[in-house]
Write a structure and sequence with these properties.
With 655 residues, the protein is of the alpha/beta class. Among the domains are: 225 residues, Rossmann fold, CATH 3.40.50; 174 residues, FAD/NAD(P)-binding domain (3-Layer(bba) Sandwich), CATH 3.50.50.60. 30% of the residues lie in helices and 26% in strands. The strands form six sheets. Strands 15, 16, 17, 24, 25, 26, 27, 28 and 29 form a nine-stranded mixed sheet that branches.
Length: 655
C-alpha cells in the first residue's frame, strides 16, 4: 500500500541555518552547507579524482534534504575538465520539500556563485510530490538525478544500480536512528560496486559497528567545522554474500544498435540511445515512420490512477512524469510537435466511483497539481460543455500528435541515426557477440551487438519468443468535422474520449475488438464511438447520432496488448537456456533467468504508448549501459518481457 508523501517543513534557527522541526536537527552545518558537502562528501570519497576518465560514475545518497550535496557534486563535475562522461546521483528522501519551500530555502541560504544557478535549475525541474522514483536530467543528460521519494527502508530495496560512492547524510543517528541501522547498511552493501567508497559526518559507535557488519571498512578522520571526527571508508567484504551482483554495462565491441520498428516505442529508444552516444540503425517495413497505431491523429496521455495505487498506477505515474520531462527537453532543443497543455479531464462512471476515487486521492494526499477531483459543475466549467458526471482533472495531461513526436525523436538523434525503410524482417540470429538481422528473402541485412525489437505484433516472432502472451486488438477512431459538435475545451475521457484538435475536428473513440483483423473503416464502429461519446456528453446533438455514419472520417489501427495489459520492456530471456535448466529455475527470480545478451524488447504498449514509451526506452538504455534504473525494480519486473516465461517455470509447464 502506498503511504502518503509528507512534505518537509521549512524552518530556520536564529543564526539562519535551515533545520527540521520533525527531527529537531539542522540540514547542514552552520559553518556552511557547500563547504560541508565539499569537505565531508566529495573529498571524503576522493572526488573529483575518482571519477576522472570514467564513462559512468554513480553516487548513492541517503537523505537528499535541500540537495546541497547534489549541487556541490554537480558544480565539481562541471569544473573538472577530466570529469566522467556521465554522472548519476541517486538519493532517497522521506520528507521532500515542496518546490516553493525549496526555492525559499535556496533564496535564504545559497549565496555561493558556483551553485546559485544550479539551485535555480534544480528548483525549476523539481518533481511533483508523489511517491516513487523520479528521474531528472541536466547538462543534456550527462548529469542525472534520480530521486526516490519515500521511506528509505522501502525505497532502498527497490533501487537497482552499482554505486561507486556513498554519501551517508541522514539527520544525526540520535535524531533519526532508523536511517543508521544494520538493515540500511545491508541494503547499501547490496548495491556497492567494487571498491565503492563512503563518507559521513558522524563517527557514532553504532554506525561503525553497522558498517563493519555489512562489509565496509572505515577509518576516522578530522571532522568538519566543530565536529572532531568523521568516518570515511570503502566496501571491502571478506566474503561475498550477494545473490546477484549489481548491474554492469553490456560488453560490446562497438556502440551500435539496431532498432526494429519506428513507432512510439522504437523512436523513443532511438532518442535515448543516441543521447548516450550510440549509433543506431532503424529498420522499418513501411515507407515512413509511425505508420501503424503511432500514426493516429492524436493520443491522450495521463496516469491511470486506482483506489489501491496498483502496480499499473505506479508505472503509469512514473511514465507520465518522465515523458513530460523528455517532451519539454525536446521542445527546448527546438524540436516541434503538437501537444495540448491545458490538462485532461477523466469522468467517473457514476457518483459512487467519483466519491471512491476522491476518498483515495485524499488518503494518498495526491497534490492538486497532479490530480484534482471535481464535481460535475466544476468539470463542466473546465470542459465548457455539459457532462454526465464529475471526475478528476490532470493539469499536466492532454493530447499529443504521436507521429510528430516520433519525427522529433529521430531528428534529435541527428547523424547518429541511419534509417532504412521498406525492410521486412523475418528473424534475428546470434553469431558470436553479434546479432544478425535477416529479411524475408533470407538475406542477412545488418549485424550489431544490440538489437531492440519494437515492432508491436511482430516483435515476439522476430525474437523467437515462445512465452510472450500478446494479442491484437482492433481500434477504430472517428473524426467529427468542425461544427458537428460543441467540442470540449480540454480532452475528456471516460467511456470513450473526445479530443479537440487544432484544426477544429474532434477525435472520438476508440473501439476495442480482440482478434478482429478487419482493416476497413466500419459504420457500426462509428456508431459505437458516438454512443460512448453521448454517455459522457449528453448534450450531443441527436441529429449527429442519426447521421449516416459512412460520411464520417475514421482510422483503424491494431494495438498489441499483453494478456495482463502491461507492456513488454527490457532485456529478453534466453528461452532455450531456461528450458534446458527448467528444473533449477522453478523458483527463480527475474534476475536469475538466463538472458539473451544484447537483445531487448519494447512492445505491447496497447493504447498507452505515450505514457510507456519514454520510460521504457530509458529503462532499456540504462540496462544496456549499466546505469541506475529509472523505476523501482518491482515495477521493472512487472513489465519484464520474461515474466510469462517465469510464470511457466514456476508452474512447471516447461520441461
Amino acid at each position: 500500500m502506498t503511504h502518503p508523501l509528507i512534505p518537509a517543513t521549512l524552518a530556520f534557527r536564529d543564526n539562519g541555518t535551515p533545520f527540521s522541526p520533525r527531527h529537531d536537527d539542522i540540514y547542514h552545518s552552520a559553518v556552511g552547507g557547500l563547504a560541508q558537502a565539499e569537505y565531508v562528501f566529495l573529498h571524503g570519497n576522493g572526488l573529483p579524482e575518482r571519477w576522472q576518465g570514467r564513462r559512468i560514475f554513480t553516487v548513492l545518497e541517503t537523505g537528499f534534504g535541500m540537495g546541497i550535496n547534489f549541487l556541490a557534486t554537480w558544480a565539481a563535475w562541471r569544473a573538472d575538465p577530466a570529469r566522467c562522461e556521465r554522472l548519476h546521483f541517486v538519493s532517497t528522501e522521506k520528507y521532500p520539500f515542496t518546490e516553493a519551500d525549496l526555492r525559499a530555502a535556496y533564496a535564504a541560504t545559497v549565496a555561493e556563485t558556483s551553485i546559485v544557478e544550479l539551485a535555480q535549475t534544480l528548483a525549476e525541474a523539481w518533481p511533483t510530490l508523489v511517491p516513487g522514483v523520479h528521474r531528472l536530467e541536466f547538462e543534456g543528460g550527462r548529469v542525472t538525478l534520480t530521486l526516490a521519494f519515500g521511506d528509505a527502508l522501502e525505497t532502498l530495496p527497490s533501487l537497482w544500480l552499482r554505486a561507486d560512492a556513498f554519501y551517508l547524510d541522514g539527520f544525526s543517528p540520535a535524531k533519526n536512528p532508523e536511517l543508521w541501522t544494520p538493515p540500511i547498511f545491508k541494503m547499501l552493501a547490496r548495491l556497492a560496486g567494487d571498491d565503492a567508497t563512503f563518507a559521513t559526518y558522524t563517527s557514532a559507535g553504532d554506525v561503525k559497528r553497522a558498517l563493519t557488519q555489512t562489509g565496509f571498512e572505515y577509518r576516522k578522520v578530522d571532522g568538519f567545522g566543530w565536529k572532531r571526527a568523521m568516518l570515511v571508508g570503502r566496501f571491502a567484504p571478506r566474503w561475498r554474500v550477494r545473490r546477484h551482483e549489481p548491474p554492469v554495462p553490456l560488453a560490446v565491441n562497438a556502440r551500435h544498435a539496431v532498432v526494429i520498428g519506428t513507432g512510439l516505442a522504437g523512436c523513443a529508444a532511438i532518442e535515448r540511445l543516441a543521447a548516450r552516444g550510440w549509433q543506431i540503425t532503424s529498420l522499418e517495413r513501411h515507407a515512413d515512420i509511425a505508420r501503424e497505431t503511432s500514426g493516429n491523429p492524436a493520443g491522450v496521455f495521463h496516469p491511470q490512477l486506482s483506489r489501491d495505487d496498483s502496480g499499473t498506477s505506479r508505472i503509469t505515474r512514473a511514465g507520465f512524469a518522465y515523458a513530460l520531462q523528455r517532451w519539454i527537453a525536446l521542445e527546448h532543443a527546438g524540436h516541434d510537435f503538437a501537444r495540448s497543455t491545458q490538462g485532461l479531464l477523466q469522468l467517473a462512471a457514476d457518483d459512487a466511483e467519483l466519491q471512491a476515487m476522491t476518498d483515495a486521492f485524499t488518503a494518498f494526499a495526491w497534490p492538486r497539481d497532479f490530480v484534482a477531483p471535481l464535481s460535475r459543475d466544476e468539470a463542466q466549467r473546465i470542459a465548457k460543455v455539459p457532462l454526465a458526471h464529475g471526475g478528476w482533472f490532470y493539469p499536466h495531461g492532454g493530447w499529443l500528435d504521436p507521429a510528430a513526436l516520433c519525427a522529433a525523436q529521430c531528428a534529435a538523434a541527428g547523424t547518429q541515426l541511419e534509417r532504412r525503410f521498406g525492410v521486412e524482417v523475418a528473424r534475428i540470429e546470434r553469431s558470436g557477440d553479434q546479432w544478425t538481422v535477416i529479411d524475408t528473402s533470407g538475406r542477412a541485412i545488418i549485424s550489431a551487438p544490440v538489437v531492440i525489437v519494437a515492432n508491436a505484433h511482430e516483435a515476439a516472432r522476430i525474437a523467437g519468443l515462445q512465452h510472450a502472451a500478446t494479442q491484437r486488438v482492433r481500434g477504430q477512431l472517428t473524426l467529427l468535422p468542425r461544427g458537428s459538435i460543441v467540442a470540449p475545451h480540454v480532452p475528456v475521457i471516460g467511456a470513450g474520449y473526445a479530443v479537440p484538435l487544432v484544426d477544429g475536428t474532434t477525435l472520438s473513440g476508440a473501439t476495442y475488438h480482440v482478434d478482429d483483423m478487419d482493416a476497413s473503416v466500419r459504420s457500426a464502429d462509428h456508431l459505437e464511438n458516438l454512443e460512448r461519446l453521448a454517455e459522457m456528453m449528453p448534450s450531443l446533438d441527436p441529429a449527429l447520432r442519426t447521421q449516416n455514419p459512412s460520411t464520417f472520417a475514421g482510422r483503424v489501427a491494431f494495438r498489441c496488448v499483453a494478456l495482463d495489459r502491461l507492456p513488454m520492456i527490457g532485456q529478453l530471456a534466453d528461452e532455450t537456456a531456461a528450458t534446458l535448466d527448467a528444473e533449477r529455475l522453478r523458483g527463480a527470480w527475474p534476475l536469475d533467468l538466463p538472458r539473451a545478451d544484447g537483445l531487448y524488447g519494447a512492445f505491447a504498449y496497447g493504447s498507452r504508448g505515450l505514457v510507456w514509451a519514454a520510460l521504457g526506452a530509458e529503462l532499456i538504455a540504462s540496462q544496456i549501459e549499466g546505469e541506475p534504473w529509472p523505476i523501482e525494480r518491482d515495477l521493472a519486473e512487472a513489465i519484464d518481457p520474461a515474466r510469462f516465461l517465469l510464470r511457466a517455470l514456476r508452474q512447471s509447464t516447461i520441461r
